[in-house]
Structures are given as C-alpha cells and as structure tokens.
C-alpha cells in the first residue's frame, strides 16, 4: 500500500489531481456542462498520458464536478449540474437571507464527507467483489450484461418510459454489433466502410450524446438573466448547524448504495437523500425555505455516488452511471479491462487511482472553503462563448482517439440522432450503456452457446448463474409491476 | 410535425430494422451461424417486440397533439450544426488550428455575443491552450497544418 501512496503523493501526481479537481469544480459550476461531458471529452486526450496520471486527472474531474454544481445552485439559483437541483431548492433561499456563506460551507463539507465515505467503500469492497468475478465463466458474463440491462430499467424516470429505456438499451447493443465478428472474423453491417471494420467506438458516441447534444440545446436556448445579488452580499462566518451530521451520514450512505446500482445516477441519489432527510427532520416546515439539512443530504448524496458508481464499473465492467461509463472508457483505452485484473495485474494503477480520489476530495474541500463565492462567477460565462469552445473540443476529442475524421462525423450523427430520440423520451444513458454492454453480452453469449453445445441451459447451470437470475428478476419485477399498474390505471405515461 | 407522429415513425423504423436484422443472419457463415446469429436474432426479436408493444400503446392511448420542438432558435441550432460539419470536412486538409480560429469567433458572434475583444481573447486563449497542452505536453497528433 505504501508504494501506491508514494505514487499518489509524488509532485506530478498531486499537481495532476489538483488540476483535474479544480477543472472539475469549474466545469461543474458551468450550467450546461456536466461531469460526463467533461470526462467523456477528456478521455481521448489521456491516451498519450501515463495511464495512472490520466486516470487521476479524470478521477479529479469527476469528484470536482460533482461538488462544483452546488456553487451556482446556491448563489445564483442556477444548478451547474442536474444533480445540484435539490441543493438549489434549499441553497438559494438561504443566499437570499444572507446565509450563502453557511450554505456553501454545509455544501462543501457534506460533499467531502459523502465523497470520502463512498471512496472508502470502493477501496474496501471492490477488490473482494472483483475476486468473486474470477469464478465467472462466459454464461455468467452474459448474465452480468443482462443485469446491466435490468439496471437500464431503473434509469427510466419521469422523462423516459420503461419500454423506451429498454428499447434504447437494445438499440445501443445493436449498434455495438457493427464491425468484425470476433467468433468468425467476418464483417457485419459495415456497408463496405473501412472505418467500421473495428466497429463503432463508444467514445465518439459518448461525446456526441453527452457533450454535443448539450451544446446544440444551449445554442438553441433563449437565455435569461441571472440574479447575482447574492454574490455581492457580505457573508459572515457561521458555525455548522447542530444535528447536521445525521443528514450528512444519511446522504453519504444513500448516495453510495444508489451509486452501486447500475444505471442510477447522482441526480436520483441527491433527490432520494433529500427526501429521506425531509422525512427524518425535526424542522420539516423549513424545507423549501432554506434548510441546511436539505443541502447536507443532497450534496452528500450526489457525491456519495462517485465511489459507489465505480464499484460495479471496476469490478464487473458494468458502469454505475454515465460518468462511470466514460471512466470505464479511459480504463479500456489504456488496455485495462475492468474485472479482477485491475486489482492484481494493474494494481499499481488502480489503487493509486482510487487513493487519488481521496486527495481530490481534500482539494475541493480547500477550494470550496476558500474560493466558492468567486467560483460562482464561472456560471456567468455566456453560453455564446462556451458553446463554440466546447464544440471545438468535442471535434478534437472525437478525432484524437483513433486519429479518424470519421469519428467526428459519428459524433455529430450521434448528437443529432440522440437529440431527436431524447426529445421523444428515449434514455440516452440506456443507449450508451447498451453500446458498452453489447460486446460484453455478445462475447458471453456466443462462448456460452459453444460451451453448451448450442443449448441455452448453460445460462442456468451454475449456482452463480442461478443467483444472478434471482437478482435480475428482483431488479425487473418491481418496475415492471409498477409500469403494469400505471398502464392499467390509465395514468398518462411520460413519452 | 407532432411528437407522436415522429415517435411512431421512429418505432416503425425500429420494427423494420428488427425484421431486416433478423433475416440478415441467414447470410452469416461458418461458426457465426450457431453463435453470433443467435445473439443478433435475440436482439432483433426483443427490440422488434418492444417496439411493437410501444407502437400499439401509442396508437391506442396517445391523444396528445404537441409539436416536436428540437430547438428554441432554429437558425442558431442549424448554424452550429452546419458549422460543425464544415469543421469536420476541413479538419483533415487544414488541421485543427485554422478551422478553430474561424469557428470559435464566428459561432460566438452568431450565437449573439458582441464583445469582439473577449471573443478574440477567448479564441487565442483556447488555441494557445490546445497548442501547449495537447501538442507540446500530450503529443497528440493532429492532421494537416500544425505550428
């Protein structure tokens, strides 16, 4: 362990983590820019970096961006990321009362605690879970991908229906079929294009679906003026409110657990933590009017997602959320396939990466306590300046991974197509998860069928497989039952 | 066009794609017939089936007439899209720096920003950042003319 600590606490590594974290806080603070966009955009550029440094940079961005979204949410009522919406509900009323300093303090301490707790869970449990993955054969690998698909169902929210989330996931898996068939070596659906022989890389898709779409939406948005009065109010230093610890603990635990579930994201974690906090609060009546307990729960919840989401990503290769999917891309392009190998063969990269996220939390704690009100001004950068800059980086990022202009066209196509299906209520997260899970599922399915001499019973044979079926059914039945009740009840379904 | 019309058109396309995908597996050769073909058929059946159910649900229950609005400002949206395609087209012959030096200020102006000094400084700043970090530090290979 000391050698891993030595890697993290070397000068270049600390500088990399600090740059990544501060950049993450700044990106998270810009409305319209998310952690997924930032990590997705930067993954191709880490290709030429030392893998450990590249991963530390991205880990810093992830941690920083999760916290950064809360600053403009509190001071300007403009959440930097969707996960900070719940923070704005309590934070902005506090700012209007002249308590922005306290709100920012609660936010950064809760974010720090949630992040540290979830990374501790990642450090303790991921290697154990990864060792279990050694017992997995092709059939279990296929079932893992199905578990990921079952997780897609839980992505379905008020904006995307259950069936549409599944359809989007399957569409992603079908897109992943394009290219050379690993079993036979023959080409499928390449339409004679040399660029498609290796298949559709998910990085241009990720940049298109999560970065470029946001830029297209921002370009077509009517901009509104932001109330900046809270930025100019004098803030006095106030101690942390009594009893806030239990709300931070609740949010940290809830966020971590939700993060571990495939498909669940920081926004859901923040809202569930916020609602749970409201239920146990002794000052329920203050919720919505500026209650620091709500900020504590929401922020520890969304930051708790960071470590949680990386547990299934690093151990099983199933991303906990879209940022984790982008991070998984970074591991893959450096030749590190998620699973037990990360904790054995590549331990000298994986452990420093995990430890670096503790440091990243420390960095944003210092930044947040010292500079938060100044960082809120980032949110005032006009979209008219931000959109062309991010778009140029999207073009550069799509090109850089494979040195292919074709990938730039793919990125634009995914952005445009993705925008249409997003407006129709399909889940983009499900699409990208399908694209990532596709090759994993196909590999497991085809090898399993060969081992089972063409019989699908191979997928029910082992005890692990049986347990996994139980988990899949447990994941599927409640949302399907709710959906059935909703359709039967004639309640209008979101589309 | 209404949202439900576009949605139904997308679902019909998905159903057609599922059928074509299923039958395309008949052309698989060798071991792929027993392995990959089954997987592709599995995907085709599921996406086709789910699309049929969703389409049926839409036909029976969806009575909405709201329009599909992709953007609140079509000229800016299309402007960005066209500019991106032009950027990609000239990326290989001209490299990153020359197209970006035109793309960033033109797009900023088109999107409504009028402070030319800030636009100029931002453009120079971004290009300088890309040169220092990506070319000098990370050694990213960019096509066309580099400096």
From TrEMBL, chain A:
Pfam families reported for this sequence: TctA
Membrane-spanning parts: 12-43, 55-75, 102-126, 133-156, 162-180, 192-213, 318-339, 351-372, 378-401, 408-425, 431-452, 464-484
Keyword Oxidoreductase: no
Keywords per UniProt: Membrane, Transmembrane, Transmembrane helix
Ranges for domain DUF112: 14-433
PANTHER family in alphabetical order: TRICARBOXYLIC TRANSPORT PROTEIN
UniProt name for this protein: C4-dicarboxylate ABC transporter permease
UniProt organism field: Profundibacter amoris
Lineage: Bacteria, Pseudomonadati, Pseudomonadota, Alphaproteobacteria, Rhodobacterales
UniProtKB/TrEMBL annotation, chain B:
Pfam assignment, any one: TctB
DUF1468 domain span: 12-143
Domain of life: Bacteria
Segments crossing the lipid bilayer: 6-27, 39-57, 77-104, 116-138
InterPro entries: DUF1468 (IPR009936)
Keyword terms: Membrane, Transmembrane, Transmembrane helix
Protein name, UniProt field: Tripartite tricarboxylate transporter TctB family protein
């Amino acid at each position: 362990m000391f050698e891993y600590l030595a890697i993290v606490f070397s000068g270049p590594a600390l500088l990399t983590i600090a740059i990544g974290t501060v950049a993450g806080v700044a990106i998270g603070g810009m409305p319209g820019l998310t952690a997924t966009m930032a990590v997705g955009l930067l993954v191709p550029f880490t290709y030429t970096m030392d893998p450990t440094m590249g991963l530390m940079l991205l880990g810093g961005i992830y941690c920083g961006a999760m916290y950064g979204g809360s600053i403009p949410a509190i001071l300007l009522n403009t959440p930097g990321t969707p996960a900070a919406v719940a923070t704005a509900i309590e934070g902005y009323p506090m700012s209007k009362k002249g308590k922005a300093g306290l709100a920012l303090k609660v936010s950064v301490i809760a974010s720090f605690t949630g992040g540290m707790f979830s990374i501790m869970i990642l450090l303790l449990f991921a290697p154990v879970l990864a060792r279990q993955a050694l017992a997995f054969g092709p059939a279990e690998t296929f079932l893992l991908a199905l578990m990921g698909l079952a997780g897609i169902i839980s992505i379905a929210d008020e904006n995307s229906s259950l069936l549409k989330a599944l359809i989007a996931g399957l569409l992603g898996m079908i897109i992943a079929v394009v290219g050379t068939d690993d079993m036979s070596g023959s080409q499928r659906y390449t339409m004679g294009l040399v660029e498609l022989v290796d298949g559709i890389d998910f990085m241009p898709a990720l940049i298109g679906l999560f970065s470029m779409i946001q830029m297209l939406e921002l370009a077509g948005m009517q901009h509104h003026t932001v109330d900046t009065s809270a930025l100019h109010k004098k803030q006095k230093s106030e101690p942390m409110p009594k009893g806030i610890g239990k709300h931070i603990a609740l949010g940290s635990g809830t966020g971590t657990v939700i993060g571990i579930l495939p498909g669940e994201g920081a926004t859901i974690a923040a809202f569930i933590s916020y609602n749970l906090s409201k239920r146990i609060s002794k000052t329920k009546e203050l919720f919505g009017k500026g209650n620091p307990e709500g900020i504590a729960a929401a922020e520890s919840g969304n930051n708790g997602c960071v470590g949680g989401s990386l547990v299934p990503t690093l151990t099983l290769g199933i991303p906990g959320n879209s940022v984790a999917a982008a991070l998984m891309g970074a591991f893959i392009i450096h030749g590190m396939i998620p699973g037990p190998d990360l904790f054995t063969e590549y331990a000298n990269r994986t452990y420093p990466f995990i430890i670096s996220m503790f440091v990243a939390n420390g960095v944003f704690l210092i930044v947040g306590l010292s500079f938060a009100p100044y960082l809120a001004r980032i949110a005032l950068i006009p979209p008219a300046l931000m959109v062309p800059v991010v778009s140029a980086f999207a073009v550069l990022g799509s090109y850089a991974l494979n040195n292919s202009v074709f990938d730039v066209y793919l990125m634009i196509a995914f952005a445009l197509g993705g925008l249409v299906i997003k407006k129709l209520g399909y889940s983009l997260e499900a699409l990208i998860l399908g694209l990532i899970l596709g090759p994993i599922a196909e590999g497991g399915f085809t090898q399993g069928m060969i081992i089972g001499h063409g019989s699908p019973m191979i997928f029910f044979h082992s005890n692990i497989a049986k347990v996994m079926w139980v988990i899949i059914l447990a994941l599927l039945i409640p949302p399907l039952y709710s959906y059935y009740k909703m359709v039967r009840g004639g309640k209008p379904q979101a589309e | 066009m209404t949202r439900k019309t576009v949605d139904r058109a997308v679902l019909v396309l998905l159903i057609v794609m599922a059928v074509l995908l299923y039958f395309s597996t008949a052309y698989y050769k060798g071991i792929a017939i027993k392995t990959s073909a089954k997987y592709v058929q599995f995907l085709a059946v599921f996406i086709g089936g789910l699309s049929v159910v969703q389409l049926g649900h839409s036909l029976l229950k969806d009575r909405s007439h709201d329009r599909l609005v992709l953007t609140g400002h079509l000229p800016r949206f299309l402007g960005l899209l066209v500019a991106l395609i032009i950027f990609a087209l000239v990326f290989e012959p001209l490299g990153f720096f020359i197209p970006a030096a035109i793309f960033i200020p033109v797009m900023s102006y088109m999107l409504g920003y009028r402070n030319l000094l800030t636009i100029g400084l931002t453009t120079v700043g971004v290009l300088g950042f890309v040169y220092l970090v990506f070319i000098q530090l990370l050694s990213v290979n960019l096509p066309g003319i580099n400096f």
